[in-house]
Amino acid sequence: MTYDRASELLKLWDGHIATEFTEKTADAAVATMVPDATVNHVPVITGGQGTDKLRDFYRDHFISKMPSDVSLVPIERTGGGGGGSSATATRIEQLQYLAHRKYFLAA
Prior knowledge:
It is a single chain. This protein is α+β, with helices and mostly antiparallel strands. The chain has helices at 3-23, 26-31, 51-62, 81-84; strands at residues 38-41, 46-49, 71-80, 86-94. A two-stranded antiparallel sheet has the order 1-2. It is globular and about 45 Å long.
């Protein structure tokens, strides 16, 4: 994996995160993904696979349930794993927990 490829992957990731946390639109978020993308929020095993299921997830469970005061604190980012086709981001989400969000706490 070259530096340029990893840098481009992380630039695409930053664009995707902006659709979730700045634009806050499901259609824009899904448009940044390949058609057979899989999203897995590891701590609570929520997400989906494929355009239609991911659009539903982002619209009905993730973006629409995000509190207005959410902010992200980046911890670590890597690009280029999996033969150059994956990115991993570790971050802290800061917010007031005023309503139940299944994507965040599954119970």
